[in-house]
Design goal:
With 257 residues, the protein is α+β, with helices and mostly antiparallel strands. It contains 8 helices and 11 strands. 28% of the residues lie in helices and 36% in strands. Strands 1, 2, 3, 4, 5, 6, 7, 8, 9, 10 and 11 form an 11-stranded mixed β-sheet that branches. β4 and β5 form a beta hairpin. α1 crosses α3.
C-alpha cells in the first residue's frame, strides 16, 4: 500500500478527475491513442507537480463541482488567505475579483477483506475560492472515487477525513480575524440570474410545480436552456430545488442549496 500513496500516484488520481478527452486537450496529447492510465502516467512523467497544478487550476471549470456562495459585509484584504497551509496560488483578475487556488489532502480509510487490515488511500481535492465584490464563491471538486477501481481486494467500511464541511469550516475560520459578517446567498434567485445571463446551463434540474416535483435530465452533451428553450421558459418561473449545470456550457456543477 505504500506505493499507492506516493506523491506521483496521488497526483495521477487528481488528474483522473478530468475526462480522457479533457486530459488530452489540457496537456496537448490529442495525437495519442492511449487509455486514461497511460495518458496520466505520461503526464506525471513529463510534467512537474507545479505544472500539473497550474493546468488543473487553469481548467478548473471542467471539473465536476459543488458550489457554495456567501455574501460578506466588512473588509477582506486580497491576501487574507495567504497563511492557509493548503493555498497554492492567488490570481488577481481585477481590483474586485481575486481567485485563490487550494489543494486539500484527504484520506479514505477502509477495511481490506483480502488482507484483514485497515488500509488507507490518499487523494487531493482541488478547491477554488473567488472573492468577487462582496461575494465569496467556494468551488470544490466533487470527489467521485471508486476504491474498487484502485484496490483489487474487496473493501468495506470506507470513511474519509476531509469533506466539504471541513473545507468550508477552514474557509470560514480564515475570515474570523477580519471580523466580516458572512451570510449564505439566496441561490434560487442567484442561479436564475446566472442562467438568464447564460453564465450557466443545466443538464439536470429538479423543480417544484403546483402539486408535484418534476425533474429534467438531458441526454449526453445536451443542455436544457440551449436545447429545450421552451421547457426552460416554464421551469424558470418555478422554485428550483437542485440543478446540475454546465457553467459557460462546459463546467459541471452541483449547486448546493
Amino acid at each position: 500500500m505504500d506505493d499507492i500513496n506516493s506523491v506521483d500516484e496521488v497526483y495521477k488520481r487528481m488528474i483522473k478527475a478530468f475526462s480522457v478527452g479533457t486530459i488530452k486537450e489540457i496537456f496537448n496529447l490529442t495525437e495519442y491513442k492511449e487509455r486514461q492510465q497511460q495518458l496520466v502516467n505520461r503526464i506525471v512523467e513529463t510534467n512537474t507537480k507545479a505544472q500539473i497544478e497550474t493546468a488543473i487550476f487553469n481548467n478548473f471549470s471542467l471539473l465536476k463541482q459543488h458550489v457554495y456562495v456567501y455574501n460578506y459585509i466588512g473588509v477582506l484584504p486580497a491576501n487574507y488567505m495567504s497563511a492557509n497551509p493548503y493555498l497554492k496560488s492567488i490570481n488577481k483578475v481585477n481590483n474586485n475579483h481575486t481567485i485563490y487556488n487550494f489543494l486539500f489532502p484527504t484520506t479514505f480509510a477502509f477495511f481490506n477483506k483480502g488482507t484483514n487490515e485497515v488500509n488507507s488511500i490518499d487523494f487531493i481535492i482541488p478547491v477554488q475560492i473567488h472573492k468577487n465584490g462582496t461575494k465569496l464563491l467556494v468551488f470544490t471538486n466533487i470527489l467521485e472515487r471508486n476504491l474498487a477501481s484502485i484496490i483489487s481486494d474487496k473493501v468495506v467500511a470506507v470513511t474519509r477525513d476531509v469533506k466539504d464541511d471541513t473545507i468550508l469550516n477552514n474557509f470560514v475560520e480564515s475570515t474570523i480575524q477580519h471580523k466580516v459578517q458572512l451570510t449564505k446567498c439566496d441561490l434560487n434567485r442567484g442561479i436564475k440570474k446566472l442562467w438568464a445571463d447564460d453564465e450557466v446551463d443545466a443538464f439536470k434540474v429538479k423543480f417544484k410545480k403546483h402539486n408535484s416535483t418534476s425533474s429534467e435530465i438531458m441526454d449526453e452533451d445536451k443542455l436544457l436552456k440551449k436545447d429545450m428553450p421552451d421547457v426552460y421558459k416554464e421551469l424558470i418561473k418555478t422554485p428550483l430545488i437542485q440543478t446540475e449545470s454546465g457553467r459557460l456550457f462546459r463546467q459541471f456543477v452541483n449547486i448546493v442549496f
